[in-house]
Task: inverse folding
C-alpha cells in the first residue's frame, strides 16, 4: 500500500518546478526580450535559494543547464546567463 505524502517540502518543489516551466516557456518564445528572460532566470534563482538554502550548485546543474540548452536550441546563440 502506498500513501501520498503532501509535505511542505514537496509543495515547495512543485512550486519551483512550475516556476521553472514558466521560465522555459519564456526562453522558447523567440519574440520575448532577452533582458526579460535574464531577469526571470535571476528571479527564479533567488526564489530557489530562499526556498532551498545552500542548493545553488544544484540549481545550476538542473535548471540553468536546461535554460541554456533551450536557448541554444531555439534562439541559436549561447545563453546570456
Result:
Amino acid at each position: 500500500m502506498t500513501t501520498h505524502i503532501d509535505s511542505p517540502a514537496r509543495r515547495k518543489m512543485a512550486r519551483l518546478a512550475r516556476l521553472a516551466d514558466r521560465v522555459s516557456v519564456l526562453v522558447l518564445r523567440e519574440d520575448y526580450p532577452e533582458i526579460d528572460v535574464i531577469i526571470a532566470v535571476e528571479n527564479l534563482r533567488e526564489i530557489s535559494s530562499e526556498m532551498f538554502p545552500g542548493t545553488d550548485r544544484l540549481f545550476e546543474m538542473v535548471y540553468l543547464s536546461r535554460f541554456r540548452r533551450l536557448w541554444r536550441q531555439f534562439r541559436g546563440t549561447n545563453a546570456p546567463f
